[in-house]
Design brief:
Blueprint: H1 4-13, H2 18-22, H3 42-53, H4 55-68, H5 76-88, E1 92-95, E2 104-110, E3 116-122, E4 143-144, E5 151-152, H6 167-175, E6 180-187, H7 195-201, E7 210-217, E8 221-222, E9 229-238, H8 253-265, H9 268-271, E10 277-284, E11 295-304, H10 307-328, E12 331-340, H11 347-360, H12 367-379, H13 409-413, E13 418-424, H14 435-441, H15 444-466, H16 468-481, H17 504-510
Parallel strand pairs: 3-6, 3-7, 7-13
Antiparallel strand pairs: 1-2, 2-6, 4-5, 8-13, 9-11, 9-12, 10-11
Helix pairs in contact: 3-6, 3-15, 4-5, 4-15, 6-15, 8-10, 11-15, 11-16, 15-16
């Protein structure tokens, strides 16, 4: 529950930004985490025993998804593997959640009148992070032998292969006659922050009493801090192609994208607060130097502490795009590809999760796991400290919000009480979204971490079933924090999520048809209709 200081903080900041007020960080001079929240019960023992008995299946699923390494919105084999695991545990699976071919909802119900608990699974890999498993130096598993653009294949550099098991809760509920509905959401495209955000806007998560989430990390920790809201936007510049050896009159869309990138860097000193983040990549800049690029695209992630603050920074980025188009005599359009809120904290939920983590202890890393971690740290120029072997102390968040990452779980958190937890999958000092994490994800560190995370989530969920007062405390805090705040999606009106057409075999296996009702297919073509640039009247001949 929030203490009186939380309420005062809420009241004093509501006038400026109600979202920031609702997710305000608590300032407590001396904070001691409560104990005795997590309790040993026969149901919890049964659930943890189920995990122990099925360790090979759980880690095997992790390894299988790691092997597939499929990119966002195209996780054909990975989603099927996740769904098959849950079907074997008695869940009913339905594919096509919110229209996404690789998203699914798996449901298990026992009895009537019990709470509805939600869990999440993600399975998309990242481009360019291919790496052989368990190797302590950079050694891409898939290398792209292109003489003009060498690179690496995709890899699970964020550990999404390790996300997900709710089966233990279902098994314990049945064995100990605990009424419950467990819903597991197989979520697509987390790396693009599309899957859950759009699904929330379509009501997919309605009716949940609580949602339990975890993500790989470099430490074992939970808390009640927030993250950044974010809008992902792609700018498309259109010019006129022409021979690079005769460039006069051509209009380079790439020039426009480079101008925009340069101009946006000038926003950092006076327009990007310490809580903000602005990063970009040119994802289409032409094909060959002797053809002036007629189309170019540059994508931005714009992050800030709340959706309102994101919009202010986004407007400045849009203005920069218009300036670049004017200077290059090209045209520009932009489309929002994803948008999410900052996460709503839950102190009561975090305290329950922490007490379970503390009682269960850190992941059981073998010497093999620690040696791999030290090898990776040496390769990356980091102190050779190995893997994190403690449960990080639960502490109030920094009262000064300094930004950070974003998650599409955030939109869920404004609609249902949500707790998030991190378990160490990467060596101390390293980062997510690296080849080093790919090396760990299906190797010894990953095997230990996925089991530990399953135990933390399962134990906390069982406490919600056996201690109704804990669930009530979580829901009461949620009601208090969201008072005066109306969540509405940050996605623009008329938004259609990006999708790839599935292979026919996948549609047959999952019982889906193409296209879903919520998109236009095929998408509208983007074709330049620009004209060559005038150079003015021709000069008289020079003799």
């Amino acid at each position: 529950m929030c203490d009186p200081h939380d309420q005062h903080e809420h009241e004093t900041t509501t006038a400026t930004d109600p979202v920031m007020a609702a997710s305000a960080h608590t300032t407590v001079p001396t904070y001691v985490p409560p104990t005795g929240l997590a309790r040993d019960t026969p149901a919890k023992t049964a659930a943890l025993d189920w995990i122990a008995e099925h360790t090979d299946r759980i880690t095997g699923l992790n390894s299988e998804i790691w092997e597939h390494a499929e990119l966002s919105l195209r996780e054909w084999k990975s989603s099927l593997a996740e769904a098959a695991f849950l079907e074997q545990a008695g869940f009913q699976v339905e594919f096509g959640t919110a229209g996404f071919p690789t998203a699914f909802t798996a449901t298990y119900s026992y009895g009537t009148g019990g709470p509805v608990l939600g869990f999440s699974g993600e399975y998309d890999a990242l481009p360019g992070l291919s790496q052989h498993s368990g190797v302590g130096h950079h050694d891409p598993r898939e290398y792209v032998h292109d003489p003009f653009a060498p690179g690496y294949g995709p890899g699970h550099g964020c550990g999404h292969c390790a996300l997900g098991t709710a089966a233990a809760v279902a098994q314990a509920a049945q064995r100990h006659q605990l009424p419950v509905t467990v819903r597991f959401f197989g979520s697509t495209a987390e790396e693009n922050l599309i899957g859950k955000t759009y699904a929330v806007s379509q009501g997919v998560y309605d009716g949940l009493d609580a949602f339990l989430d975890w993500h790989p990390s470099t430490s074992n920790a939970t808390g009640w801090g927030s993250g950044t809201a974010m809008t992902a936007v792609t700018f498309t510049f259109l010019g006129v192609a022409g021979h690079g050896g005769h460039p006069l009159g051509n209009k380079s869309a790439l020039d426009a994208a480079v101008m925009m990138a340069t101009l946006s860097e000038f926003l950092r000193e006076e327009s990007v607060a310490p809580s903000g983040r602005l990063h970009w990549v040119i994802n289409n800049g032409g094909d060959i130097p002797n053809v002036t690029p007629e189309i170019a695209e540059i994508s931005y992630y714009v992050r800030e502490g709340s959706p309102a603050r994101v919009q202010v920074l986004l407007d400045k980025v849009i203005a920069v795009s218009e300036a670049a188009a004017k200077a290059s005599r090209t045209s520009v359009r932009h489309r929002v590809t994803a948008a999410c809120w900052n996460q709503l904290p839950s102190r009561a939920f975090a305290e329950l999760m922490y007490d379970n983590m503390r009682q269960l202890g850190p992941p059981e890393f073998t010497e093999e796991a620690q040696q791999l971690a030290r090898d990776l740290q040496e390769s990356l120029g980091l102190p050779q400290q190995g893997m994190h072997t403690e449960i990080a102390e639960l502490a109030p968040p920094n009262p000064v919000f300094l930004g950070g990452g974003s998650t599409d779980v955030a939109d869920i958190s404004w609609n249902v009480p949500t707790v998030s937890m991190g378990a160490a999958l990467a060596p101390i000092g390293s980062k997510l979204h690296t080849w080093a994490l790919t090396s760990c994800a299906a190797a010894a560190p990953g095997r230990a971490t996925v089991i530990a995370a399953a135990r933390y989530l399962t134990a906390t969920a069982i406490d919600l079933l056996t201690q109704p007062e804990q669930l009530k405390a979580v829901k009461d805090e949620f009601k208090q924090r969201t008072e005066g705040v109306e969540w509405r999606t940050a996605l623009p009106d008329g938004y259609e999520p990006p999708m790839y057409e599935p292979p026919e075999w996948f549609l047959e296996r999952t019982g889906q048809t193409w296209p879903p009702d919520n998109i236009t297919w095929p998408p509208r073509r983007v074709v330049s209709q620009e004209k060559f640039s005038s150079l003015g009247p021709e000069l008289p001949p020079q003799y």
